[in-house]
């Protein structure tokens, strides 16, 4: 399961090159598409989150379905602002806990921030729960540790509810 951050800070432009402005979200999308293309036989699903997690796709072998889901996502689609890493990881664990099969169970977390919204379960207990259930977790942090530019927030885009 991929657990993908859609918080406002993912619009930071610190992934830019001298020739193009690139947001953290755009860089994430590129990495996700590349990852999906290299895992043709794996079942992959996705949870997206900002201040609240949402299931984007259950585990599936249909990578086109997952890609189209990622295509539809944008910063602001999750109305609840903030970063709820613990609750998003817990949702991914819940979706994987009863998965059968010979392959390994893995959660890949892509985020740029610290958890500031989880109430039901914090990130460390969520990761401990994953480990207790035999689910490996890999965390990918995005962004530079320096001040960065955030574009103006577009509140007119449609949000999940």
Description:
It is built from 4 helices and 5 strands. Strands 3-2-1-4-5 form a 5-stranded mixed sheet, with helices on both faces. The mean pLDDT is about 90. By secondary structure, it is of the alpha/beta class. Strand 4, helix 4 and strand 5 form a beta-alpha-beta unit.
Spatial strand arrangement across the major sheet: 3-2-1-4-5
**Element string (H = helix, E = strand):** EHEEHHEHE
**How many structural domains in the coordinates?**
1
Instruction: Find the count of extended strands (DSSP E, 2+ residues).
Output: 5
Question: Biggest sheet: strands, sense, closure?
Answer: 5 strands, mixed
**Spans of 5+ residues with little confidence (pLDDT < 50)?**
none
Radius of gyration, in angstroms, nearest whole number: 15 Å
> Class, according to the CATH hierarchy?
Alpha Beta
Helicity level: 25-40%
Mean model confidence by pLDDT: 91
Helix count equals 4
Q: Looking at the structure, what is the overall shape? A: globular
The third-level CATH topology is Rossmann fold
CATH H level, superfamily name: von Willebrand factor, type A domain
Structural class designation: alpha/beta
Gross CATH architecture: 3-Layer(aba) Sandwich
Tell me the fraction of residues in β-strands, as a range. Answer: 15-25%
End-to-end distance: 22 Å
Gist?
This protein has 161 residues and is α/β, with parallel strands linked by helices.
């Amino acid at each position: 399961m991929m657990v993908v951050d859609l918080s406002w800070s993912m619009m930071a432009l610190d992934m830019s090159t001298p020739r193009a402005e690139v947001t953290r979200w755009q860089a994430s999308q590129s990495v996700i598409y590349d990852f999906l293309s290299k895992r043709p036989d794996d079942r992959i699903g996705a949870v997206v989150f900002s201040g609240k997690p949402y299931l984007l796709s259950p585990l599936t072998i249909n990578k086109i379905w997952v890609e189209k889901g990622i295509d539809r996502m944008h910063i602001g689609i999750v109305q609840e602002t903030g970063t709820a890493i613990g609750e998003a990881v817990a949702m991914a664990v819940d979706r994987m806990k009863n998965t059968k099969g010979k392959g390994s169970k893995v959660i890949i977390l892509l985020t740029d921030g610290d958890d500031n919204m989880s109430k039901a379960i914090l990130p460390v207990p969520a990761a401990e729960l994953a480990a207790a259930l035999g689910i490996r977790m890999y965390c990918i942090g995005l962004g530079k540790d320096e001040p960065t530019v955030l574009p103006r927030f577009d509140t007119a885009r449609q949000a999940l509810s």
